Amino acid sequence: MRATDIIIKKRDKEELSKEEIEFFIEGFTSGDIPDYQVSAWAMAVLLNGMTNREVTDLTLAMAQSGDTLDMGKLVKISVDKHSTGGVGDKTSLVVLPVVAACGLPVGKMSGHGLGFSGGTLDKMESIPGYRTNLSLEEFERQLLEIGLVLTGQSRTLAPADGKLYALRDVTGTVPAIALIASSIMSKKIAAGAHAIVLDVKTGLGAFMQSIEEARELAKMMVSIGELAGRKVVALLSDMNQPLGYAVGNSLEVCEAIDTLHGEGPADFCEHCLVLSAHMLLLGGIASDMVTSLKLAEKAIQTGTAYEKFKNLVEAQGGDATFVDDSSKFPRARFIEKIESQKKGYVSQVHARLIGEASVILGAGRTKKDDNIDHSVGIVVHRKVGDYIEPGDLLYTLHANSQEQVEEVKQYLLDSFIIQNDKISPLPLFYE
Questions:
Q1: Is 143 exposed, middle or buried (0-12, 13-18, 19+ CB in 10 A)?
Q2: Which of 110, 182, 183, 237 is catalytic?
Q3: What tens digit of pLDDT does each residue of 107-132 get?
């Protein structure tokens, strides 16, 4: 078997066998197949696609390229969640404690942010001392002890995915839906998830900007999961405007804490409850969505979800006094309010522009080794469908230099479109 023949076969729109895919991934992981051949193959996949069977074989080959966690030894069922990324998406900070508080253990490996899409680990690292580099042994022990883990991706899990992603990033093949699906699912399967809830974002602030693209990706990942023997459900959710109000690391942590107290933004609260309910349903804690939603709501109302979040922070070395008193988080030096200059109905709050503005402030990265400023960010005060008058508050900017404030102001004004005709609010979920 030769790598060249496999590249040619995919170039000519033929279906690769399981053995060919395993040979190719094994050779790439070991270094026997060079980057330039894998780049050529990735471009062929981008242009010609893969069948669901091919993508499943690719996913499993990548999942088995390194260590794998056997959650069955630790818990009866392990349920995980994954979001395809967005702006103000802090759902894991609420959903995981809610689900764990309902008696369903959750062990999640997340990532740092790159570009306009924020990273869960960056948010958690705004809590002093919080560790995101747990070993597999620490991961397993904590899951048994408190039923909740939120840490970084182990480098020994699905190493083929890490190598392939780095190549895709520099060869123009990131948008290949087959490679996106296999990348996400290989990490979830390697991490031992028995059931997975996928939050597939669509809109101006998502990687999948059209519902059709998001649906294609969602269906492919559900198919991979089913063919691999996992229970999977995918939700198509809106990312045309930021989720909640806060965009920026410590600002988002504070909003998540408010939500765990039952005081968060309405859209964010509902989003978290729906995701939590689907996880509880897949995990067998409840038999229908109505019961699942009631359990999730009760975990917030009784404070058990909040206590579980505190347990998580303490278990991973974080200073839980910041959770009890969010005023302890460092504040940016410049806090400036931006007001509306028009009256009418908000028809657009461009999530991507807001995400890019937060990166300019220092809340995100343009390169992987960029430092993060946890104190900066943006609070968005209006949603699509709101009626506003001149002088109404649109944004509150949190910045550490006046130059950043001036640079970001126009970005934010451009992100808002106001019209005379009444417009309906955006849905949280499409399908």
A1: buried
A2: 183
A3: 998 877 766 777 899 999 999 999 99
112 is catalytic: no
Q: What is the pTM of this model?
A: 0.92
Of the residues 82, 123, 381, 398, which is catalytic?
Answer: 82
Cα 75 to Cα 102, 185, 355, 408: the distances in Å are: 14, 20, 37, 47
Domains of the chain: 3-49 (1.20.970.10), 71-324 (3.40.1030.10), 331-419 (3.90.1170.30)
Sheet with 387-388: list strands edge to edge. Answer: 387-388, 344-349, 416-419
Angle in degrees, CA 224, 77, 91, rounded to 5 = 75
Indicate which residue of 168, 188, 365, 398 is catalytic. Answer: 168
**Secondary element (H or E) of residue 383:** none
Type of residue numbered 133: N
18, 59 Cβ separation under 8 angstroms = no
Six token digits for residue 352: 């991507």
Is 168 catalytic? The answer is: yes
CA 268 to chain centre: 14
Structure tokens at 255: 């909003």
Q: Which of 57, 89, 161, 238 is catalytic?
A: 161
Long-range Cβ pairs for the range 10-13 (8 Å, 24+): 10/41, 10/44, 10/45, 10/48, 11/40, 11/44, 11/48, 13/48
Tens of pLDDT along 128-154?
Answer: 999 999 998 999 999 999 999 999 888
What contacts 406, CB < 8 A, 6 or more positions away? none
Residue 336: strand pairing partners? 397
Closest CA to 61 of 184, 163, 212, 186: 186
For residue 271, indicate whether it is catalytic.
no
Tokens of 109: 């490996």
Q: Any bridge partners for residue 205, and if so which?
A: none
Provide the token pair at 241: 């405007």
Burial 285-313 (b: 16+ CB within 10 A, else e): bbeeeeebbebbbebbeeebbbebbbbbb
